[in-house]
Amino acid sequence: MTYYICQTCGTQFSPTVTPPEHCPICEDERQYIGWEGQRWTTLEDLQKSHHNVLRTLEPGLIGIGTEPPFAIGQRALLVRTPVGNVLWDCISLIDEATVAAVRSAGGVAAIAISHPHYYSAMIEWSHAFSAPVYLHRADQQWVMRPDPSIHFWEGESLPLLENLTLIRCGGHFDGGTVLHWPEGAAGQGALLSGDILQVVSDRRYVSFMYSYPNLIPLPAETVRRIVAAVEPYPFERIYGAWWERVILQDGKAAVRRSAGRYIRAISSVG
Question: What residue numbers bound the domain in which 77 lies?
């Protein structure tokens, strides 16, 4: 029995004798089947061809990414606190070198993930560090490898370690979640957003989409609800899902003006 990994989205599946026939995450209209068709790999093969790098992004925050990029190509974030570290989002590759490096930074006390495109090899990471995984129950159907380590939470927010808070925004997925880190940006606060709020190339703005690869927008009402969800929390900085996708300052105002621009654009009559 083998834990196969989808090469397009990076999700690891429950063990099977042969590769699964379908990847429901890629068949969903928010993702896509690769142009070469459905392809699979394994963690063992990934360990032979790829490696992870760790980079300190600011005091208390370490990025973990895979080189060369694999699947969607996101990097995870390790938020360090005095009472334990939280791994935000996840990647498909984990190996002995990564485990050793993360342990030297304090290990992982909990894992939280923004949405199903980044579930990746979350169970491998959970088992390596004996860490619970926190996912919003609204996205339970997208878990391709169920495990007792997964804790499904409900509602609009969930406190985690050392004043960290999970905030349900919805939008891209019903359970789409961001993480508020009040100690980030030298105490001015940071929002770890995955692509629930997508930091775009013009890093004065974020965007909001139902599907990014297929360019399906969200309605204005949903965008307003996302902005309202994060409004009570102070944050100067926004960390998106990729290395350079970071708004360094004026993050909260960026969300407001981005929502205004987005709503004007989708409301315009051509």
Answer: 4-267
